[in-house]
Amino acid sequence: MSRTRKVVWSLLGAAVLLGAAAWVFQKPISVRVLEQVARKNVGRNIIPDLPDGLHLALCGTGSPFPDPTRAGPCSAIIAGDRLFIVDTGEGSARTLGYMGIPAAKIEAILLTHFHSDHIDGMGPFLLQRWGVGTAQTPTPVYGPTGVDRVVSGFRAAYALDFGYRVAHHTEKIMPPGGSGGKGMPFALPAVGQGDSVVVLDDKGLKITAFRVDHLPIEPAVGYRFDYKGRSVVISGDTKVAASLVAAAKDTDILVHEALQPNLVKILETQFADHQMNNMAQVMHDILNYHTTPEEAAQQATKAGARQLVLNHIVPPLPLRYAYPAFLGDAAKYYDKPITVGEDGMFFSLPAGSTAINTQRLY
């Protein structure tokens, strides 16, 4: 037998032995791996290690479309050591956990409007803040007029579940008073008398809600967060709106929704070709109350925003290779960084600095 054949047979034999060993020791190996994963992730909390400042986590950059890489709309804002959630799209609580940001630490949730894709993931946030954080009071949920109806609906839907958990784990672990949410409605000024209202102004953090244009969905708002000289603006769902430009003036980061009509029209054609006429009509209708990437870029330029981050991505983009087609001519209208938002992205704005530091947390 030649030396080469001996080497080949030796390698094959070693591979067989390794495979056999892996099979025989499958259970103990799996247990060891799970122990290591648990040790790394249980109790993970990045917030205490962050520099003082304003931080943005993208916990959901998707839309109502099925998208394996994007949860429903959700942004987390960390101001100092305080955690706020803007919108609670489906799957976003899991994304937040993957990023090492515990939902148990949420101070409040803020809703931009009441379309299903912006609220359908609220339940897990409320449950984690209650059960993991042992909250003594319901989670404050801020929003425009109508938010109390939404929160009451979730409380009714989860009422049996809340009772089961108290009965099983005892009131010490699941204090009944901490279950669910508490609607915190605010009213915008009448049309023509202003477009914004301060929702919270406390300990150096100012949160301002401002009117956007998502008609016929009304009310609909965006939010501006200001903390120690740094700022983040979240548009919510809107078409081009002067009120957004005013609210986003000189902001560090503008997080803006984006829909690319050229790509949506492809879906409209396919739905029509498959005689799915209802969905074809929906694809046509959604074009008139969202913002294109090019329009978002123009808005960012008018506002003087330092960075534009696109979210609520429509339609789903299966590969980053599709990003240029999605962005279209946006770069012609905005000469600063444009980021197509992805779940897991994290932006850090240290106080006393002009830096915008970006990383992936999962």
UniProtKB/TrEMBL annotation:
The record ties this protein, via Gene3D superfamilies, to: Ribonuclease Z/Hydroxyacylglutathione hydrolase-like
Question: Which residue windows are transmembrane per the record?
Answer: none
Q: Could you tell me one molecular function GO term of this UniProt entry?
A: 3'-tRNA processing endoribonuclease activity
Which InterPro entries does the annotation name? AtsA-like_MBL-fold, Metallo-B-lactamas, RibonucZ/Hydroxyglut_hydro
The Metallo-beta-lactamase domain is annotated at 71-274
Q: What is this protein called?
A: MBL fold metallo-hydrolase
Q: What UniProt keywords are attached to this protein's entry?
A: Hydrolase
User: What is an example of a Pfam family matching this protein?
Assistant: Lactamase_B_2
| CDD domains, sorted | arylsulfatase_AtsA-like_MBL-fold
